[in-house]
Amino acid sequence: MQLPDATTLTTCGLSVSDPGGRILLIACGAIAREVLAVTQANGWTHIDLTCLPAILHNHPDRITPAIKQAVDKNHDQYAQIFVLYADCGTGGELFDLCKKLGVEMLKGPHCYSFFEGNAGFAERSKDEFTAFYLTDFLVRQFDAFVWKPLGLDRHPHLRDAYFGNYEKLVYQAQSKDRELDHKAQDCAARLGLNYERRFTGYGDLESTLTGWID
Amino acid sequence: MADEEDDIILSELDDEALALQMHDDLYDGLKEEIEEGVNILLGRGWEPYEVLTKALVAGMTIVGIDFRDGILFVPEVLLAANAMKGGMAILKPLLAETGAPSVGTMVIGTVKGDIHDIGKNLVAMMMEGAGFDIHDLGINNSVDAYIDALKEQNADILGMSALLTTTMPYMKVVIDTLVETGIRDNYIVMVGGAPLNEEFGNAIGADAYCRDAAVAVETAKEFMDRKHNQMAPL
Lengths: 214, 234
Description:
The structure holds two protein chains of two kinds. Chain A is α/β, with parallel strands linked by helices. Chain A has helices spanning 6-11, 32-41, 63-74, 93-101, 111-116, 118-125, 136-140, 142-147, 159-163, 178-191, 203-213; strands at 23-28, 47-52, 80-84, 104-105, 131-135, 168-173, 194-199. Chain A has eleven helices and seven strands. In chain A, the strands form two sheets. In chain A, strands 2-1-3-4 form a four-stranded parallel beta sheet, with helices on both faces. Chain A starts with 5 loop residues before the first helix and ends with a helix. In chain B, strands 2-1-3-4-5 form a five-stranded parallel beta sheet, with helices on both faces. Mean pLDDT of chain B is 92; it is low at 1-5. By secondary structure, chain B is of the alpha/beta class. Chain B has helices at 2-6, 15-27, 31-43, 48-68, 74-98, 118-129, 143-152, 170-180, 198-204, 213-231; strands at 104-110, 132-136, 157-161, 188-192, 208-209. The chains are: A alpha/beta, B alpha/beta. Chain A binds chain B through residues 60, 87, 89, 91-92, 109, 122, 125-126, 129-130, 149-152, 154-155, 158, 161-162, 165-166, and chain B through 73-76, 78-79, 82, 113-118, 139-140, 164-167, 194-197, 200.
């Protein structure tokens, strides 16, 4: 299976390209690449993947209705559906919906947490609340998710109003990619923040998927 | 040349047109024009409080409504707030001199573990514009910081803000401590922040959840009116 580019995943998501599996994963477009890597590494051929547009990350109020629509649309065709979102700013609404629909979802507050591992992230975040996080996907799509929506392309002087209380940018690396590392460093410089690269791999995403599917 | 011909000379506008133009300039985040407009109105004999309410607060209210309705977005609101700040910096010392009435005193701050303050700053600014004395504790506030400030300032209102689902439960810690120490009823407790809702506000024992700065101002005014009515002699 070939994934579309990051811009397409941001704005359009991903449709099920070759339906036929018994299990459907409904994921955020921002983790499509990582989900696909885990499914391919495990040789899970009975699984289909569809993704909602990743830009919903910036509009958490739209996530729950979009998930409901995706589950409603697909539940007749699959034996099982899994939702690959954490709370993601829905304030518990997504959890309530998934419970009502009888589908599992990822644990944790957001992808920064489950990529690092929810337990470790919760512990660390007590002392690291001045960190701004980016994942592989968000480094690739920094302008679309951060720079432009915050108006920093048009009003760069607003930077400190947004980021004045932050101290560092933590790039949570899912992959070992020197180019992304450089790009993340550049993101930190643009935001006026110190930089730290932290390799996370797939964290709880991988263990959760394995627990569900195997 | 066309631009020059189209330029509006603020000093040539009559009072009503100037106030309306200032609403537009606030909407467009034009700080220098707002400062100029404030000085012109003061020069024409307007009371500082009148300039604040009729030119600045009224303009910022329009910004707030359009933000709520999805017409304006955060960057534009920040620019408008920055312009309003410019005007308020001129008016503040004058308001203090003229002894403008205080509607009430509010202690406001973002909760422990949370550094997000854009919404909180907007609320503080609009509350100040509405005549409240504001004591802004900034970000990352502990229970003790809130309670010390409430006592020191003899405050009427506590405002707490959080942007993260992981930090918003701390609001309950603060309210529970107010209850345990027997001072909960001394204060109006208002909470806000993107992941909150009315249900959460009720569940933690706040007096009100406020979805935006305009609602916060109206809610605070209503609570203060009720408080004054309760205190009025029979």
